[in-house]
Automatic annotation (TrEMBL):
This is Mitochondrial import receptor subunit TOM40 homolog. It comes from the Eukaryota. It holds the Pfam family Porin_3. The gene is LOC107579585. It is a multi-pass membrane protein. Belongs to the Tom40 family. Keywords: Membrane, Mitochondrion, Mitochondrion outer membrane, Protein transport, Transmembrane, Transmembrane beta strand, Transport. GO terms for molecular function: protein transmembrane transporter activity. The keyword Transport applies. InterPro entries: Porin_dom_sf, Porin_Euk/Tom40, Tom40. One of its GO terms (cellular component) is mitochondrial outer membrane.
Length: 252
């Protein structure tokens, strides 16, 4: 399997600067499943020279790695690398974010998830961050329950709590709910989202609503037989009485 794809995206906005993005995708020939092949390289660059890129590779049957970095014009802004190991009934992963040996700063995140039953998995997460004059560790416990057509997750820790629920109603409709509480910000939020696919019309509808009364909607339409996709989006913040809308065209 070998796939190369390029796309062009033009964004027009009355609130900010309009932009153009060029994207490219490469999928290698190492087949690991019916719909999986590695390595995968994805990247895009805008008209100012800012770049987002990531590389994903299946090193062995159990070890997968990912490297991602981001630049803002000529400066490196963010980069991270992670490795994931899948055992018979557990998953362990470690992530390094913006490590700098000379300055002595960076972030390390370790995950461990153990399958208790075929549907239930329990584990934890440890986050360690350090920079000049500041150092800290945050630990949290996590759980995930997987059903035939839904997934529920819950994370509890010193920084707060996070819960999510995803439900696939049918081949066309997907729903999701997310809850987040932060002890540092003293704030809680709930958001709801959905995605409706209409394959016969080449249409995808996406919508969202959160507890801050921010409503968003997006419509994506493939303009067959041309290699074009049209996206229309709108967001309304009821509390701040702000409305935004726009459209984009993707070639490829």
């Amino acid at each position: 399997m070998l796939l190369k794809e390029v796309n062009h995206t033009v964004l027009l906005s009355t609130l900010g600067d309009s932009s153009y993005r060029f994207g490219a995708t490469y999928v290698g020939t190492k087949q690991t499943g019916p719909a999986e092949a590695f390595p995968v390289m994805v990247g895009d660059m805008d008209n100012t020279g800012s770049l987002n890129a990531q590389i994903i590779h299946q090193i062995t049957d159990r070890v997968r790695s990912k490297f991602a970095f981001q630049t803002q014009q000529q400066k490196f802004v963010n980069w991270q690398g992670d490795a994931e190991f899948k055992g018979e009934d557990f998953t362990a992963a470690v992530t390094f974010g913006n490590p700098d040996v000379l300055v002595g700063s960076g972030i390390v995140v370790a995950h461990y998830l153990q399958s208790v039953t075929p549907s239930l998995a329990l584990g934890g997460e440890l986050v360690y961050h350090r920079r000049p004059g500041e150092e800290g560790t945050v630990m949290s416990l996590a759980g995930r329950y997987t059903g035939s057509n839904f997934i529920a997750t819950l994370t509890l820790g010193g920084a707060g709590a996070h819960g999510s629920y995803y439900h696939k109603a049918n081949d066309q409709l997907q729903l999701g709910v997310e809850f987040e509480a932060s002890t540092r910000m003293q704030d809680t939020s709930v958001s709801f989202g959905y995605q409706l696919d209409v394959p016969k019309a080449d249409l995808v509808f996406k919508g969202s609503l959160d507890s801050n009364w921010v409503v968003g909607a997006t419509l994506e339409k493939k303009l067959q037989p041309l290699p074009l996709s049209l996206a229309l989006s709108a967001f309304l913040n009821h509390r701040k009485s702000k409305f935004q809308c726009g459209f984009g065209i993707t070639i490829g």
